[in-house]
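Action item from last meeting closed. Structure (250 res):
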């Protein structure tokens, strides 16, 4: 406890616990939680401010570079710019957390998931959909769930180049699965994948850019909608399996 107090700069509060009993320990824990929340709020505010301030110079740099480099290299420049825009967008989404304010509504998970996959298929991505259910009704945040699905599909395409999305039913639960055939993730890294700013590419052995926020956003959306998130390597072949479990509405 003293080590934690030292790191959070609350050593005085810790040493002031007299007598050292359960009631006073609870008070210290509450004080510690308040300190942690304040530090997290400050960190998020700083990151949001940096991301916002980067947008204008980034746009100016793009316009300048377009005028300075040969036209045949414009495509490559656009790709780099779009990557930066995506990263800043992920940071903005995570820090503003707009998806937590959306009202829940009933949706058909089968029709909804197939529609999301179809959007990727129209753009030539290797995304497939499978289910043996005619419908599966859940109550969730429509836009937030779509964002979570897009993050998971984008992640699979980035590291594996393919993903199978499935909707299954087990008793009164509905399972939304994302299965890829990529390299998977070393077991020791699995519990960290949803940590904010954790770089998945470091764990998956790829030199690919990423914000480290895609799965953190997914986790927040899943928890906020009272669903459950599981991530594990495929026990039957290579690749990763991400599963979101919902309670079915009768």
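Sequence:
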């Amino acid at each position: 406890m003293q080590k934690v107090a030292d790191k959070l700069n609350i050593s005085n509060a810790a040493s002031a616990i007299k007598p050292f009993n359960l009631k006073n320990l609870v008070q210290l824990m509450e004080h510690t939680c308040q300190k942690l929340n304040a530090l997290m709020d400050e960190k998020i505010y700083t990151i949001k401010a940096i991301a916002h301030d980067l947008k204008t110079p980034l746009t100016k740099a793009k316009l300048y570079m377009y005028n300075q480099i040969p036209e045949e290299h414009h495509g490559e420049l656009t790709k780099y710019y779009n990557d930066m825009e995506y990263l800043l967008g992920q940071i903005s989404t995570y820090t503003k957390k707009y998806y937590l304010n959306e009202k829940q509504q009933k949706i058909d998970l089968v029709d909804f998931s197939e529609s999301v996959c179809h959007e990727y298929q129209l753009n030539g991505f290797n995304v497939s959909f499978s289910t043996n259910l005619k419908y599966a009704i859940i109550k969730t945040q429509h836009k937030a769930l779509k964002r979570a699905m897009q993050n998971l599909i984008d992640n699979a395409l980035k590291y594996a180049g393919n993903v199978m999305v499935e909707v299954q039913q087990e008793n009164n639960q509905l399972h939304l699965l994302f299965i890829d055939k990529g390299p998977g993730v070393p077991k020791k890294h699995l519990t960290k994948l949803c940590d904010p700013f954790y770089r998945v590419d470091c764990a998956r052995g790829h030199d690919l850019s990423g914000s480290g926020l895609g799965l953190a956003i997914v986790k927040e959306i899943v928890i906020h909608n009272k669903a459950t998130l599981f991530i594990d390597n495929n026990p039957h072949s290579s690749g990763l399996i991400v599963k979101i479990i919902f309670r079915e509405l009768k």
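Note appended to the action item: The first strand starts at residue 105 and ends at 108.
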